[in-house]
């Protein structure tokens, strides 16, 4: 990493020149006035004197022109061509240990396949932002032409990366607040499709299990639950209890499992089907039912809104659900970065990747 930094930029002034060029390419047109030097220095995390020196270089290159009583005016964009994307920094929501397996591995696979096609290089950075340690801002902007942020939900963190002036796409999380380009799975469409499927099979009373908000506050869980609730109303179904499971707390899992089993065995009108937000939660629910002697699908139908093509449910053919296009999400992330370079002034892009619905066996309870 140190060799790459030393080869690309020899001092802070050169690095700041590159930062400002990228900022202009992303956010400013000819004739626009740049922020004051002190504001730029704070935005780019450098000293005021470094920005002043960098501006002299940019002025000599006829990219900007300092105008008295007006400010620094953009004379020309650094390049009239589409900016080259050769080095892509990939910053996941957590460490790199689980990056190559499950749905995250599929996203990375799609990302890599599209980068190979375009002749790009990938640089992996563990997310060390704020409470996790020192942010790798200087390293990222020095080696990268664009960023892919995977599953990062902290808007302040995203805003800090946006301030770097690089093309950015957030993958696997959608936030209207941040206003950055986003690629996500169609969780809302998948949630509606699952409920519709159960209604077509004759189910009229459903319950729902999601990850605990303490575990996952991401947009996926929000959209899945919203889709479930809306579909239940539209299809004139009845909704039983909505359960949340903290998969990191064994005693809480046992307590929630007991509550679900008690509902199914003791209620006068128990749900005939349970919609589950994701694959991991569905595997847990299967285990809880098996432990209590509840047969799936004989006694209860289970449908999963989001599962992985090569996940733990791939051989469980009695569960219906939506297999998400996680690999396609990685592909679309690179395509969105390219599009941003071509349309730097466009409104934030929101790309929703589709799913394949897989039908399992029906539940005998609906025939009683």
Descriptive overview:
The protein is an alpha/beta fold and 368 residues long. It is 42% helix and 20% strand.
SSE inventory with pairings:
Layout lengths: L1 H7 L3 H16 L9 H8 L3 H13 L3 E4 L3 E4 L12 E6 L9 H17 L2 E4 L12 H7 L2 E5 L4 H8 L5 E4 L9 E5 L1 H14 L4 E7 L7 H16 L3 E8 L4 H17 L6 E6 H14 L8 E7 L12 E5 L1 H17 L7 E4 L1 E4 L10
Helix pairs in contact: 2-4, 3-4, 5-12, 8-9, 10-11
> Are there runs of 5+ residues with pLDDT below 50, and where?
1-10, 130-135
Beta-strand percentage? 15-25%
Order of helices and strands: HHHHEEEHEHEHEEHEHEHEHEEHEE
Tell me, rounded to a whole number, the average pLDDT: 84
Radius of gyration from the alpha-carbon trace, in angstroms: 25 Å
CATH superfamily of the largest domain: Response regulator
> Under CATH, the topology of the largest domain is which?
Rossmann fold
Global geometry: elongated
The CATH class label of the largest domain is: Alpha Beta
Classify the helix fraction into a percent range.
Answer: 40-55%
> Architecture of the largest domain in CATH?
3-Layer(aba) Sandwich
Strand order of the largest sheet: 4-3-5-6-7-13
Number of domains: 3
Largest sheet: 6 strands, parallel
Question: Key features?
Answer:
Rossmann fold; six-stranded mixed sheet; 368 residues; single chain; alpha/beta; Arc Repressor Mutant, subunit A; six-stranded parallel sheet; 14 strands; 3 domains; disordered N terminus; 12 helices
């Amino acid at each position: 990493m140190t060799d790459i930094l030393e080869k690309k930029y020899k001092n802070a002034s050169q690095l700041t020149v590159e930062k400002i060029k990228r900022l202009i390419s992303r956010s400013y047109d000819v004739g626009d006035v740049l922020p004051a030097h002190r504001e730029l220095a704070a935005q780019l995390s450098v000293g005021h004197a470094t920005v002043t020196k960098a501006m002299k270089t940019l002025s000599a290159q006829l990219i900007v022109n300092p105008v008295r009583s007006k400010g620094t005016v953009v004379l020309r964009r650094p390049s009239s061509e589409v900016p080259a994307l050769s080095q892509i920094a990939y910053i996941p929501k957590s460490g790199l240990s689980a990056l190559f397996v499950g749905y995250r591995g599929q996203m990375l696979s799609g990302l890599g396949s599209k980068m190979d096609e375009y002749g790009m290089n990938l640089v992996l950075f563990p997310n060390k932002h704020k409470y996790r340690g020192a942010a790798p801002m200087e390293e990222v902007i020095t080696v990268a032409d664009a960023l892919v942020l995977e599953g990062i939900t902290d808007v302040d963190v995203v805003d800090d990366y946006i301030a770097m002036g690089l093309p950015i796409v957030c993958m696997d999380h959608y936030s209207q607040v941040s206003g950055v380009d986003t690629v996500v799975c169609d969780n809302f469409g998948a949630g509606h499709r699952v409920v519709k499927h159960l209604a077509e099979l004759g189910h009229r009373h459903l319950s729902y299990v999601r990850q605990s908000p303490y575990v996952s506050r991401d947009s996926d869980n929000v959209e899945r639950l919203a889709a479930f609730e809306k579909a239940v109303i539209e299809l004139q179904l009845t909704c039983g209890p909505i359960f949340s499971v903290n998969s990191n707390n064994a005693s809480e899992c046992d307590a929630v499992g007991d509550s679900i089993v008690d509902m199914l065995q003791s209620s006068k009108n128990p749900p005939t089907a349970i919609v589950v937000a994701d694959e991991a939660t569905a595997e847990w629910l299967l285990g809880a039912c098996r432990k209590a002697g509840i047969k799936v699908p004989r006694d209860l139908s289970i449908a999963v809104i989001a599962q992985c093509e090569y996940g733990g449910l791939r051989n469980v053919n009695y569960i219906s659900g939506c297999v998400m296009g996680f690999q396609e999400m990685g592909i679309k992330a690179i395509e969105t970065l390219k599009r941003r370079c071509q349309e730097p002034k466009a409104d934030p892009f929101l790309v929703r990747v589709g799913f394949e619905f897989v039908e399992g066996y029906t539940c005998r309870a609906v025939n009683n």
